[in-house]
Amino acid sequence: MPSKKVLITRLIPNIAKTMLTNAGLEVMEWQGDGPMTQPELIERAKQVNALLSLGADKLDKHFFNQCSHLDIIGQFAVGYDNIDVEAATSAGIPVSNTPDVLSEATADVAFGLMIAVSRKMFFNHKTIIRGEWKQFEPLKNLGFQLSGKTLGIFGMGRIGMMLAKRCQGAFDMKVIYHNRSHNTEAERLYGATYVSFDELIRESDVLSIHCFLSDETRGLFNREVFSKMKPSSIFINTSRGGVHNETDLIEALNQGLIWGAGLDVTNPEPMKPYNPLLEMPNVAVLPHIGSATVEARNGMARIAARNIISFYQHGEVPNCINRQVLKGRKS
Ligand code: GLV
Q1: How far apart are CA 51 and CA 44, in angstroms?
Q2: What's the CA gap between 274 and 257, in Å, rounded?
Q3: Nearest alpha carbon, ligand 1 atom 1
Q4: Domain CATH code at residue 218
Q5: 62 and 151 belong to one structural domain
Q6: Using a 6 Å cutoff on CB, does residue 290 contact ligand 1?
Q7: Which residue, judged by its Cα, is nearest atom 4 of ligand 1?
Q8: pTM of the predicted model as reported, rounded to 2 decimal places
Q9: What is the pLDDT of residues 103-132, one digit of tens each?
């Protein structure tokens, strides 16, 4: 039987290629500096059996119409909002992601943003670059202390739990959360309390978003929500930019509906260098680096490859999102 071919759609840690090759799979890699256009992706995907994809690959209905022959998609990310999972399921294609391995790294970024915003760190850094550091300022650029404040988590999965752990350990913060279901582990380990969505947004001093982007969460954090938050609160988003309405966020900050914001994801991405958020003292923005540690990226490469290999070797995909397609399917 000719060996199965896997297309890796960007250069990622080499461990993925090594694992796939060692498992007897033939690997093709897109070596370009950025993602392929969708026509390029479709053209190359037609020549392979499996795809190791990244978040910038548009795997929509059109893609699956053109590439229904694919055996499996192994996404190199925990988020998969770039993939029309329903269309993949209709085509009988299992889709997998890489949870857990990036939870610590992403929680670190949320934690860092929270501290950076509360002390206006990015803004203060810029004052030095602009030559504005002249003397000690007793009354200027004051932030606030996080100790004892309330952390609100929207989406209490692994990343939310890692943030709760950090905030409780470092600042003895009270943790409240809203989720589709109760997370008893977070309640037991970090004393987290389940609250309604309304209570979450009203009570949080720091509100941190850790949900998937879906029809339910798209644009959820908008003017109406910001207007119900405390004027002293900080909004943190390290999930997907599409979850917040950026125009509303800018307005909310300008009008003092909320105090500050820390974003690792923006809407749209990439953010333009002249975005007003970048000039606001109480705002810190990063270019989507949540999983950007050597440990997390190696883990993501390993898990994405393992999902594909396991499919071919055992007909099983450990991190399958649409598990129903595996039933009765022979690899
Ligand atoms: C990164 O944003 C991911 O979803 O893994």
Answers
A1: 10
A2: 23
A3: 77
A4: 3.40.50.720
A5: no
A6: yes
A7: 79
A8: 0.96
A9: 999 999 999 999 999 999 999 999 999 999
Instruction: Tell how far the Cα of 149 is from the centroid of ligand 1, in angstroms.
Output: 28
The most distant pair of C-alpha atoms in the chain lies apart, rounded to whole Å, by 75
- Are 127 and 251 members of one domain? yes
**Which of 10, 96, 104, 106 maximizes ligand 1 atoms within 8 Å of its Cβ, making it the mutation to test the pocket?**
106
Question: How far, in Å, is the centroid of ligand 1 from the Cα of 281?
Answer: 27
The DSSP call for residue 196 is -
> ∠ at Cα 316 (82, 312), nearest 5°?
85
**Residue 319: strand, helix, or coil:** coil
291 ligand 1 Cβ < 6 A: yes
Q: How many domains does the chain have?
A: 2
Cross-strand pairs, 208: 153, 236
What's the gap in Å between 99 CA and the centre of ligand 1? 9
Mean pLDDT across 139-165: 97
Please tell me whether residues 179 and 243 are part of one structural domain.
yes
List, for residues 6-46, the tens digit of each pLDDT value: 999 999 999 999 999 999 999 999 999 999 999 999 999 99
List the structure tokens of 83.
């993939």
Domain of residue 81: give its range: 5-99+294-326
**Could you tell me how far CA 318 lies from the centroid of its own chain?**
20
Residue with CA closest to ligand 1 atom 3: 77
Ligand 1 contact via 284 beta carbon (within 6 Å)? no
